[in-house]
Amino acid sequence: MAYNILVVDDSETVRAVIAKALAISGVEVGTLFQAGNGVKALEALRREWVDLVLADINMPVMGGVRLVEEMKADEALRGTPVVIISTEGSATRIAELREKGISGFLRKPFAPEELKRIVDSLLGEGKPHG
Question: Tens digit of pLDDT for each residue in 9-67?
Fold first, then answer.
């Protein structure tokens, strides 16, 4: 099954690296949406069907933490899993993000296999979507 994935990062290069990692890992992607900040991500989420969000923490306009908060406050979006991909990865920070409702965390840099493992664990066969 192909998944619609939204990649949210203010770096176009990082978004391209994540897209390439998805392709290399063998994750079946239907449509890959991209956004440079949380505001643009929310616009895309309200306009398109997205199975999974891969987001950075630190971005201008609206960062990843605020994006997660906004998604959890929106009944239509709260069930969409969010994986944070960031260089910031202290145990305290990850615990804070999990309390806010993230579904997973990957530290940059990451291997494509790690990305596939987390996508499969969240969206694999028999998992609820949306």
Answer: 999 999 999 999 999 999 999 999 999 999 999 999 999 999 999 999 999 999 999 99
Domain count, the chain: 1
Tokens, residue 96:
């804070």
Say if residue 109 is preceded by a cis peptide, omega within 30 of 0.
yes
Nearest to 108 by CA among 60, 56, 32: 56
For residue 121, what are the domain limits? 59-89+101-130
Tell me the C-alpha distance between 113 and 98, whole Å.
22
Give the three-state DSSP class for 1.
coil
Distance between CA atoms of residues 50 and 31, nearest Å: 9
**Please, are residues 3 and 28 in contact by the beta-carbon 8 Å criterion?**
yes
Query: 52 lies in a domain?
Result: no
Region of 78 on the Ramachandran plot (φ > 0 left; ψ -120 to 50 alpha; else beta): alpha
Q: 3-class DSSP state for residue 107?
A: strand
Q: How many CB atoms lie within 10 A of CB 61?
A: 11
Domain at 63, CATH number: 3.40.50.2300
